[in-house]
Amino acid sequence: MKLTKAIKLGCCALASVLFIAACTSDDKPLTAAPATKGDTKEPNPFPFYKNIEIKPGFNFEVLSWGKGVDTLGGYLLLMSDSVKNNYKSISVERKGIIADAWNMDMDNDGNPELYVQYVVRKNVNDLNVFEYSNGSFDKISFPGLKDNLKKGYEGNDKFFVKNGDLFRSVPVVNVDSGKTTTLVKTIKYRLSGNSFSTSEVKPGE
Asked: pLDDT by residue (tens digit) across 121-155?
């Protein structure tokens, strides 16, 4: 009898120990597994990205890509027409850093024009222009500065849109008798028949 009672007491004690151990292990806080090399977040492969909505379901996307020198690489123009289940794209080489992109229809022909602004060198800006028409991207030649503006031009020019028109402010540096002055001139662009023309905006206009 004494042996049987001792065995029962031993079993009860063992069960109590196991129960306490189980409860103690459940209360221990969980620790996160150490990060591995595979968990390292990859850098954004596209230095520039912009989505341009023409109308619901009809979008253009502009994204630049390239590795190594920032000013060298390429960019993509993507057209998505989910209503008509139509998708087009074009790849363009670039020598500059894309700063902005937007849509216009300066010649009012109903075909969207994509304006891609990029920094050619330091503070010198330029534009690439593409018209999307009949399912394809057609590049429109964008004019450079005229000779009277090139003299004294040191960059820091800016493109801007006002009332549906495209303008460019161009600082021109003039040195006369050792005195340096800077005059900001404004250029207005017009588009007709996929050809640009320019005119200088006079003060007060």
From this structure: 888 999 999 999 999 999 999 999 998 888 889 89
Residues above pLDDT 90, as percent of the chain: 59
Report which of 126, 128, 198 is spatially closest to residue 158, judged by C-alpha positions: 126
Report the distance separating Cα 16 and Cα 11, nearest Å. Answer: 9
What is the spatial distance between Cα 205 and Cα 186, in angstroms, rounded to a whole number?
Answer: 10
d(CA 112, CA 53): 11
Q: Is 98 exposed, middle or buried (0-12, 13-18, 19+ CB in 10 A)?
A: buried
Distance CA 11, CA 187 (A): 97
Residue carrying structure tokens 């005119």: 199
Strand stretches in 22-85, DSSP E: 48-55, 58-65, 72-81
Closest alpha carbon to 113 in 189, 24, 41, 176: 189
3-state class of 130 per DSSP? strand
Residue 163 φ/ψ region, left for φ over 0, alpha for ψ in the -120 to 50 degree band, beta for the rest: left
So where are the chain's domains?
Answer: 42-201
Residue 3 has pLDDT above 80, yes or no: no
Q: What is the pTM of this model?
A: 0.76
- In the block, tokens 């937007």 appear at 102
Enter the tokens of residue 16. Answer: 């109590």
Q: What are phi and psi of 192, to 5 degrees?
A: -145, 125
User: How confident is the model over 100-120, as pLDDT tens digits?
Assistant: 999 999 999 999 999 999 999
